[in-house]
Amino acid sequence: MRRLQAAIEGLDVGVLVNNAGVARPAMAYLHEADVEAWVRMVRVNLWALTEVTAAVLPGMVERGRGAVLNMGSASSEAIPSFPLNTIYAATKRYVSMFSRSLYVEYRSKGIDVQCQAPFFVATRLVPSAMLDSWLSPLVPTPDAYARAAVRWIGHGPLCTPAVSHQLLWCLAGVLLDAAHDWLRLREHLRLRALSQRARAARVSAADRGEKMTHAKK
Ligand SMILES: NC(=O)c1ccc[n+]([C@@H]2O[C@H](COP(=O)([O-])OP(=O)(O)OC[C@H]3O[C@@H](n4cnc5c(N)ncnc54)[C@H](OP(=O)(O)O)[C@@H]3O)[C@@H](O)[C@H]2O)c1
């Protein structure tokens, strides 16, 4: 915090984008990963965002203007559960409530606080199996997402900027919660099985490579 405060001293920070986020461990039951791994996720997704916002707000209040954009996720807003990614979705729920309340607190001071809640965007955070699925036409590139995201800054406390995500959000509203829960768990168990198979294949390829090196020696 001290380093951050020193770095921004004297700077006119007009727009803060809290984009950093961690989604791994993904497709895992809570008891399967080290608690430290979940704590790391909470530190970045929730704690760092809080600290950076708190560091930047005093300057914005002084100047009477500014915008804070927090990256949330549709996983905590548009659907009722996100099984096997529980901590991730829970941290994103914090982000939306944090943003909504700050929006109300700081609007009269000229500062817009917004949570953007996208569905999947084609970055390294998304499992590759997801990008190959029927959903792929609805997954924007990071550039396309960023263009839409910038246009939405200042338009309310919660939004999903990409048109394909707005469509998915409407579709999600039609399904019953129990149906969502069942479909999500089934899909995430499938993705989990695919990533476990890919990991096993990588390990056995590495073993084969090691054995060949030994044989050559
Ligand atoms: N992609 C999606 O489908 C999707 C959907 C909903 C929400 N989101 C949210 O969108 C945001 C951006 O994610 P992305 O999709 O662009 O994922 P990404 O490609 O994995 O990028 C994550 C970013 O977070 C930074 N980061 C992670 N841990 C950090 C740490 N300890 N300190 C500083 N920086 C750290 C990474 O920095 P380095 O490059 O230095 O590692 C990287 O720039 C995240 O908040 C994510 O939760 C993404």
TrEMBL record:
Sorted keywords for this record are: Oxidoreductase
Q: Which InterPro entries match?
A: NAD(P)-bd_dom_sf (IPR036291), SDR_fam (IPR002347), VLCFA-Steroid_DH (IPR051019)
Asked whether the keyword Iron-sulfur is assigned, the reply is no
The Gene Ontology terms for molecular function here are: ketoreductase activity
Say which family it is in.
Belongs to the short-chain dehydrogenases/reductases (SDR) family.
Please report the name of this protein according to its UniProt entry: B-keto acyl reductase
In the UniProt record, which is one GO cellular component term? endoplasmic reticulum
